[in-house]
């Protein structure tokens, strides 16, 4: 090591990549419930785990100096996620974006001199959002389950279909989140776990019936209003529920939110601005993803318009 390199600080040992990642994750864990949602902390843990596997399997190393990360390393990690880990394109991109934050921290702290992500672009593919049709939703609601646990999960899922609440928000929902609205009816007034934005949602009759069903349930604790299981268990039971109900779709807690946006509200003439506000979206553009898939509703509306115009033409002909 030359005197010049020593003077410039180049003789200092380089920060290690996974060490930086772990330091970041430790801070995120400490801020869960304040600045971060539990799901965000979980995604960073998973991203670090995938990166550690990539280093071990592809490079035969337990860790590397952060200065060794270059564009080739990033592209290799993305390829590994898609091939060896079998991640979808969008899932792989999201993990790389998690990794990108770690590199940005290293760059901001001067641990690396250039940003290896400078020429890497995150391009997510547009995904067609699945939802239940009105017929499927009715079939699910009226199916009789012999297993009480399946019935509880179905009820929680249907409640989300009629409120638009995400899993994390319905799980933490308590009696304190309900208020009497300006119309004199019951409203949900809560803050979204993911974005911290306010959601004000009138409680529709179906959702109210479910709340009343569990009002005195011994399954409820800490002022909770519904017996919501872990997300993993919910999704596992929803798969069984779909099979028993004859619904050929991959039911997840998030599909219920999509169903609220499409089948329950937009398809019934609720304005996209109102839907966006109830969903707690920060941007109307996010809500517009749901509106794109309502061709059936557009077709129905245009059929009514055709009949109306046809009737008007007949009236004109008779009066001519």
Question: Care to describe what's here?
Answer:
GO terms for molecular function: DNA binding. It comes from Flagellimonas sp. MMG031. Belongs to the 'phage' integrase family. This is Site-specific integrase. The chain is mainly α and 320 residues long. The chain folds into two domains: 96 residues; 162 residues, Orthogonal Bundle (hpI Integrase, Chain A), CATH 1.10.443.10. It is built from 14 helices and three strands. The longest helix has 25 residues. It is globular and about 90 Å long. The protein starts with a helix and ends with a helix. The N terminus is likely disordered.
Q: How would you briefly describe this protein structure?
A:
By secondary structure, the chain is mainly alpha-helical.
Topology of helices and strands:
Blueprint: H1 3-7, H2 17-30, H3 38-58, H4 71-83, H5 89-108, H6 134-142, H7 148-161, H8 167-171, E1 178-180, E2 186-191, E3 198-202, H9 205-213, H10 231-245, H11 253-265, H12 272-279, H13 284-291, H14 295-319
Antiparallel strand pairs: 1-2, 2-3
Helix pairs in contact: 2-3, 2-5, 3-5, 4-5, 7-9, 7-10, 7-11, 12-13
